[in-house]
Amino acid sequence: MAGSVCSKLVDTQLERFRVSSSTVRIELPAASGYLVLARTAVAAMCARLDYPLDRLEDVKLAVDEACSLLLSDTDADGTLTVAMAPGEDGQLNVAVSAVTRHGKTPKQSSFAWTVLSALVEDVSATVEAGQVSINLSASRGDSMVAS
Amino acid sequence: MSVTSGAPKRTTRWDDAARARERILLDTMAAEPKDSAAYSRARDELVTIHLPLVEHLARRFRDRGEPHDDLVQVGTIGLIKAVDRFDPDRGVEFSTYATPTIVGEIKRHFRDRGWSIRVPRRLQEMRQHISQATAELSQKSGRSPTVAELAEALDLSEEEILEGLESSQAYSTLSIDSSGGGDDDSDPSSLTETLGSEDDALEGVEYRESLKPLLAALSERERQIIMMRFFQNMTQAQIAQEVGVSQMHVSRLLTKALLQLRSGLTEDAF
């Protein structure tokens, strides 16, 4: 039950960015050992969108960071949801969410937030019914030559 | 029973004298109260004379992406545990008893970092090929190559490239400041100048005071790369060029340094 509520929230979150029919969503147990699945999935998504390697690694790192950030405030039996959808012009939107203990968005003055802001074009956070979502929006970067 | 202090002699061979000494030390530990000076001296010496065993066992795990010194360090923790738990009455040699404890501790170190112990040779080779091809393609086009381009250049599937990329993060955490980097020839002082003051850069980060010692604990290279990427918004490709290492190496160092910062930082991010 809780799962469907969560995924609905994530969907709403993604809608805010931009709707896409090709949303990929994975749910992970809230343990760092599973983050490799999130990283691998987002890397594959970046590859599909023809991201250059340095941007791909940035997005991977950002997703890893966002997941770790939420994990630090999530109970061990919780669930981490990673939803990603391509936007316009090779944009990639990723929403990482979990029901956290504090039910609060991360402080923008935290180091983790600084890291996220440097890695992707846009970072925002929202909270709905205890479900905290960190929303990342990445682009291929300006080093991409038009093809 | 008292134990004479002084550095134990390093023996290349585990000879009878050393074995006798070990016996005495174990007896001392069994006989003396745990809070006595004699007990702790015997304990220290037992640990010290078995350090070569830790060295030896740590070497078994070389080339798996963890610095040798770190492995010796965690292995030593295993050794200390073994010294504390050893029961001479069981009739087992101490080294026989200690070996699985030390190895266990080293393996746990890999596990704790979420990495598997074995790095298939195939992946090791692929990593090198990807790194090389990335450098070549970057040189040609002036930007970082895509996975598709790498797959074509190396005649591999995109999936294989992705696998190689992930594995290069997970395993290769060797600092370029440690041996084997091979590309450690740039002058760090010239970089420091371009960085400006770290204090200025960290302005606005609420937990900069707790961040500073963690940054200081990183290698010079890692610190520079962290500052360049997160506080000066340079791209990985730009950093690679500036520092004179491959972009994959920059990526690797960033991941590793972030991991280290994250585990050390006790900031209250919420």
Outline of this structure?
The complex is a heterodimer of chains A (147) and B (270). With 147 residues, chain A is an alpha+beta fold. Chain A contains 4 helices and 5 strands; from the N terminus they run αβααββαββ.
- Poorly predicted segments of chain B: 1-12, 170-196
Into which percent range does the helicity of residues of chain A fall? Answer: 25-40%
Shape of chain A: globular
Q: Please, how many helices of chain A?
A: 4
Uncertain parts of chain A: 143-147
Radius of gyration of chain A: 14 Å
Question: Which geometry of chain B do the CA atoms define?
Answer: elongated
Find the CATH topology of chain A: Heat Shock Protein 90
Distance, first to last CA of chain B: 57 Å
- Number of contiguous helices of chain B: 14
Please name the two chains that share the biggest interface, counting residues whose Cβ lies under 8 Å from a Cβ on the partner chain: A-B, 46 and 44 residues
Mean pLDDT of chain A: 85
Strand numbers in spatial order across the main sheet of chain A: 1-2-3-5-4
Oligomer: heterodimer
Order of helices and strands of chain A: HEHHEEHEE
Into which percentage range does the β-strand content of chain B fall? under 5%
Query: How much helicity do the residues of chain B have?
Result: 55-70%
**SSE-based structural type of chain A:** alpha+beta
Description of the structure:
The complex is a heterodimer of chains A (147) and B (270). Chain A is an alpha+beta fold and 147 residues long. Chain A has one domain (2-138): Histidine kinase-like ATPase, C-terminal domain (Heat Shock Protein 90, 2-Layer Sandwich). Chain A is built from 4 helices and 5 strands; from the N terminus they run αβααββαββ. In chain A, strands 1-2-3-5-4 form a 5-stranded antiparallel sheet, with helices on both faces. The longest helix of chain A is centred in the middle third of the chain and has 19 residues, at 53-71. The radius of gyration of chain A is 14 Å and the shape is globular. In chain B, helix 1 runs antiparallel to helix 2, helix 4 (68-85) packs across helix 5 (94-112) and helix 13 crosses helix 14. Chain B is built from 14 helices and no strands. Chain B has helices spanning 16-31, 37-49, 51-59, 68-85, 94-112, 121-141, 147-154, 158-171, 188-195, 198-202, 208-217, 220-231, 236-243, 247-264. The A-B interface holds A 32-33, 35-36, 39-40, 43-44, 46-47, 50-58, 60-61, 64-65, 68-69, 72-73, 100, 102, 104-107, 109-115, 118-119, 141, 143-145 and B 114, 134, 141-148, 150, 158-159, 161-162, 165-166, 169-170, 204-207, 211, 229-231, 233, 235-237, 247-248, 251, 254-255, 258, 261-262, 265, 267-270.
